[in-house]
Amino acid sequence: MERESPDKSQDNIALSQPEIVNRRRLRRVLSKFFRSQIVGGIENLEKAAEFVQREGAGLSIKINHFSRSDPVQAMLAATMHPALADRRIVAPIAAHQTLPKWVKLVERSRRVGVELFP
């Protein structure tokens, strides 16, 4: 059986215009409280961005996670590059990180193109 090539316009990787606007607003606010700096491996981020642009595919970023701010700092660092800034983010999250329930973190994160999976 022949495998069909995916239709890149339907790939659900790129963000919608409202998600882009929301993410840029959130990034502006978060960057004031969470400083991100790529100490080593900036060339790897550049290679990753080139791959994403060339292949039109997604990217998996793995981080060591020592504090609650690490995932936010990783997102800010990864979205510094224009090729990655407006791409959908999918991330696992521990169930206890969605507490308290009234915050509705999983639902609210979708507004900025982030899919969280507790």
For the largest beta-sheet, the strand count, sense and barrel status come to:
2 strands, parallel
Number of strands: 2
Order of helices and strands: HHHHEHE
Instruction: Tell me the helix content.
Output: 40-55%
List the SSEs and their pairings:
Elements (H helix, E strand, L loop, with lengths): L16 H17 L8 H14 L14 H9 L3 H4 L3 E4 L12 H5 L4 E4 L1
Parallel strand pairs: 1-2
How would you explain this protein's 3D organization?
This protein is mainly alpha-helical and 118 residues long. It has helices at 17-33, 42-55, 70-78, 82-85, 105-109, and strands at 89-92, 114-117. A two-stranded parallel ribbon has the order 1-2. Strand 1, helix 5 (105-109) and strand 2 (114-117) form a beta-alpha-beta unit. The longest helix has 17 residues, at 17-33. Mean pLDDT is 77; it is low at 1-10.
